[in-house]
Amino acid sequence: MQDAPHTTTATNSWKAPKILRILLAAAIVFLTTWLGPAQPASACSCVGFDAAIEMDDSALVFTGHVVDEQAAAGLFGDEQTALLFDVDQVFKGAVLPQVVVNAPADVGAGCGIGVRGPMAVLAYSDGQSLSSSSCSSSSLDAATLDLLVSKYGPGEEAAPLESSELFGDAGFPVVIVAGALAFAGVLAAAIFVVARGQTSEQ
């Protein structure tokens, strides 16, 4: 008779862990069903193109398409992509046939520009360069074009440019190389004129 309480205690101590395991398993199933499987954070989170137009703090608004690109470094060392656009129409800002716009290199969560067809772009200036992202750019369709026209009026067509290369073999922008060559030519001509004038005076 004295052994009965001891047997009951041992039985209860064995049942408790089993009940806890069942409750824990039920809790895991419930949380998994309720919350769903974890999703990777791969989507860009921003206001969107329509809202960006309404804010209207861009320096340049244009339509065009990417014709060249190269890796670049941002102001704080972040990875970016320098995109060369052939410009079709300009709705705000200087009318240029081509423009370089920096964008985040990551086209997923980093909000980089992944579109390579006709686009509408809102570019922002920091005083030295232009930048944009997937939040301030969009594939160009009839609805997007109507949105631009309703906000800014009819755009001005940009003159076509023959060169569609942003970087030469040495990694320098073609525009900079062409400018340097032109400057060198003018400088050489000026030196020749001065030297000729000095020779004539003698």
Explain the overall architecture.
It is elongated, with a radius of gyration of 32 Å. It starts with a helix and ends with a helix. A hairpin with a 5-residue loop joins β2 and β3. Strands 1-2-3-5-4 form a 5-stranded mixed beta barrel. It has 2 domains: 1-38; 49-162, OB fold (Dihydrolipoamide Acetyltransferase, E2P). It is built from 4 helices and 7 strands, in the order ααββββββαβα. It has 202 residues and is of the alpha+beta class. 39% of the residues lie in helices and 24% in strands. The protein has helices at 3-35, 49-55, 142-152, 174-201, and strands at 60-73, 79-92, 98-104, 119-125, 130-131, 137-139, 156-157.
How are the secondary structure elements laid out?
Blueprint: H1 3-35, H2 49-55, E1 60-73, E2 79-92, E3 98-104, E4 119-125, E5 130-131, E6 137-139, H3 142-152, E7 156-157, H4 174-201
Parallel strand pairs: 3-5
Antiparallel strand pairs: 1-2, 1-4, 2-3, 2-7, 4-5, 4-6
Summarize the structure.
With 202 residues, the chain is α+β, with helices and mostly antiparallel strands. It has helices at 3-35, 49-55, 142-152, 174-201; strands spanning 60-73, 79-92, 98-104, 119-125, 130-131, 137-139, 156-157. The chain has 2 domains: 1-38; 49-162, OB fold (Dihydrolipoamide Acetyltransferase, E2P), CATH 2.40.50.120.
